[in-house]
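@channel sequence for tomorrow's demo:
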Amino acid sequence: MNHGYDFPRQIQFANQEEKQEFSKFPTKTGRRSLSRSISQSSTDSYSSAASYTDSSDDETSPREKSQVNSKGSSDFCIKNIKQAEFGRREIEIAEQDMSALISLRKRAQGEKPLAGAKVVGCTHITAQTAVLIETLVALGAQCRWTACNIYSTQNEVAAALAESGVSVFAWKGESEDDFWWCIDRCVNMEGWQANMILDDGGDLTHWVYKKYPSVFKKVRGIVEESVTGVHRLYQLSKAGKLCVPAMNVNDSVTKQKFDNLYCCRESILDGLKRTTDVMFGGKQVVVCGYGEVGKGCCSALKALGAIVCVTEIDPICALQACMDGFRVVKLNEVVRQMDMVITCTGNKNVVTREHLDRMKNGCIVCNMGHSNTEIDVASLRTPELTWERVRSQVDHVIWPDGKRVILLAEGRLLNLSCSTVPSFVLSITATTQALALIELYNAPESRYKQDVYLLPKKMDEYVASLHLPNFDAHLTELSDEQAKYMGLNKNGPFKPNYYRY
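structure tokens (generated this afternoon):
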């Protein structure tokens, strides 16, 4: 192609000295080593693009450190309490776009609807969840908190929470042993026993059932926000082993239609760009699962020019994908041609070693579902495969023939492991969680049995109404005649429980 400029076939040097200077630059092999060292140094400087946290601190495990906050408390275990000031700034930024949750905090602060509540929580620890935790504290609750994901904790935010008096046990890059140790420290505290559980993924609930079943004698309810955790709760309920009421936040309208859809629509691109700098236009992408998360991911990728196909087990979701313009395929039919494979199912072994063996060189593999079971990462830890850390949360898995697959966050949740998520949409979920906790904690014993419940429709509508002022949105009001014609209360709820938004 002629660009109007004739490029010389060989670089011309003005003199011998300049030629010698150029020769100092590394050869092809040297450049590869330099690239690796640059990548490694960037990993050493920052634990993730999403976190300020400087990991050039000593590499001592937080479990071996003795730290106290400014009030003299040591009831926490985090990376570095000295980062609290930076974390406080992160939380303040998040608060600006979480006005509905702040509004709820101000409205209910005087009543203290969670006075006496002892909440043990296991969620991602980010600036946005910190706003939720501090809202619960403002409403009267005592909180102990740990992380539901070993990579998603923002260390500076954990420090800010610990400085404010919240007992938090989490840091970015925990080992599996650290993960369960942190959960245990949250639950097993002498002289303190939880009476409410807020979970994301079901690991905290599982641990309490396994190690401290007597805790459930005082627990008034469980609030769960992930598809994985909700699935576990329904299994317990079906087996007759669920001994307290549980609120399924994941399937509330405000979670499904906003967090799962709109949040993932934006954060999938953010996570992929930060980790791989990939260009989406023209890329062949397969998204496994076309639920709300899959719909959000497909919409975003398609908008940037990617060629997207979908895998599905559900004929209804498959038909939706077809009507939205996506080809529905089986993964083994297309895996050889794909530039990216993204899982969004909440299931296990969606991407197996057989699929990984057939992928082409440079294929990006990542997970947008909550659980880390969707990609069979364990099958990649074998002698014949080489793992090469490129940067934080990015690994090359290298086959004997030189083929490389790019694995992100070791198969864990991409957006919260590798980037951040929009504060506004998390305000919707966090407000829903707070109201669910208030409802279960204050409900008379006869209202909820030992089963899994959806949030009342009226509460979903209230959460949505709190967020409308951000858009200067004005709702139309029904006349008495219209309300009577439709058989509705003028103040809602406006849809029956079976309505699908």
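heads up for whoever presents: Residues 2-13, 21-57 have pLDDT under 50 and may be disordered.
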